[in-house]
Write a structure and sequence with these properties.
- The longest helix has 17 residues.
- 44% of the residues are buried.
- This protein is an alpha/beta fold and 346 residues long.
- Among the domains are: 53 residues, 434 Repressor (Amino-terminal Domain) (Orthogonal Bundle), CATH 1.10.260; 142 residues, Response regulator (Rossmann fold, 3-Layer(aba) Sandwich).
- It has a six-stranded parallel sheet with strand order 2-1-3-4-5-11, with helices on both faces. Strands 7-6-8-9-10-12 form a six-stranded mixed sheet, with helices on both faces.
- Helix 1 packs across helix 2, helix 2 packs across helix 3 and helix 5 packs across helix 14.
- The termini are far apart.
Length: 346
């Protein structure tokens, strides 16, 4: 009878701990006690956990032509288009994809990495889950790299892990959107963020603030709406519109832009005559609502293509010295009906 390969999930169950704890113990994280690390590592070694044995890929001396992709949320139009780009290049290069969704969970993300590593794939493309970024727990990534598996981070990244990365210039995108508002005569500019805990949300907020400061406009915390499980977007918008003068709203995510447009119109405001709106991600919804929404395009399909090309090059060029690269994708503003044109103002 064939013996099942031991996994981090099985080790976690044995010691009644999380997969993340097992991953940290195996990567010798300082966050785990010496006693716990010793027990977990001894158990893993005794059961021939694969990080303690020769990687079968080394024995085969060839690629499996398989890439693992871990995405936080496939319902997000940005990640859907990123995956289209990854799949296009993978197909052209003869690679297969195995895809997992973390649903913004650290535990699911660590579990997905463990599952995919046991498939003996050649490398990972991933965007970090929200819980992982909030908790700053990246040990499962480091453990993977320590096992010699190439990793490509996209969009949501961390400087704590050395690997190849492809990111959008989020700060520039928000800066240009805010400047467009200012150039069309807007002075009371609000921002709606349901991604404020993520690295990309923080960068976009920085770009917004930079544009205001350069225009010598005040930064009013009452105009910075942070949407989360405790504060829904409709309630926050109603409070703001009832208490503050607002003539423009920058939404940091596609759904937030559509919801903002709907509520603003329901309150009797005209868009863009009374309030202008710009959103991020040039997906389908902003084009077909009325009025259509001006957006910041992040060129997500292209981002996916670049990420796949870089990872495959890393996989196939095994003899080259390891020098990690971060590729930055520029954004551009796509003007539609939800903003005034500069010609109209001047």
């Amino acid at each position: 009878m064939k013996k099942n390969r031991i996994t981090q999930k099985a080790i976690a169950k044995e010691f009644n701990v999380s997969i993340a704890t097992v991953s940290k113990a195996l990567s010798d994280s300082y966050e785990i006690s010496i006693e716990t690390k010793t027990k977990i590592r001894a158990y893993a070694e005794a059961h021939s956990y694969k990080s303690f044995i020769i990687d079968p890929r080394v024995e085969l001396q060839k690629n499996t032509k398989t890439i693992g992709v871990i995405i936080p949320n496939m319902l997000n139009q940005f990640f859907t288009k990123v995956f289209v780009g990854i799949e296009k290049i993978a197909t052209e290069k003869g690679y297969n994809l195995i895809t997992c969704i973390s649903n913004e969970s650290l535990e699911k993300e660590a579990g997905a990495i463990e599952l995919l590593k046991n498939s003996y794939l050649d490398g990972f493309i991933l965007s970090i889950a929200e819980e992982t970024q909030v908790r700053k727990d990246f040990s499962h990534f480091q453990n993977t790299i320590n096992q010699g598996i190439p990793m490509m981070m996209i969009d949501r990244i961390t400087d704590a892990i050395d690997c190849d990365k492809v990111v959008v210039n989020d700060k520039e995108g928000a800066y240009n959107a805010t400047k467009h508002f200012i150039n069309t005569g807007c002075r009371n500019i609000a921002i709606v963020s349901n991604i404020h805990r993520l690295s990309v949300g923080k960068l976009r907020l920085e770009g917004y603030k930079q544009a205001l400061l350069e225009a010598k406009l005040p930064i009013d915390d009452a105009l910075i709406l942070k949407v989360d499980e405790f504060n829904d977007i409709n309630t926050l918008l109603k409070i703001m519109l009832d208490s503050k003068k607002v003539d423009a709203i920058l939404c940091l995510e596609e759904d937030a832009a559509v919801n903002t447009l709907k509520l603003v119109k329901s309150r009797g405001y005209r868009v863009p005559e009374d309030i202008s709106i710009i959103g991020f991600t040039n997906g389908i919804l902003p084009r077909y609502v009325s009025p259509s929404i001006t957006t910041i395009s992040q060129h997500s399909t292209y981002l996916g293509e670049i990420a796949a090309k870089m990872l495959i090059n890393r996989i196939e060029q095994t003899d080259t010295p390891i020098t990690y690269t971060t590729k930055v994708i520029k954004t551009n503003l796509i003007e539609r009906e939800s903003t005034k044109s500069i010609v109209e103002v001047f």
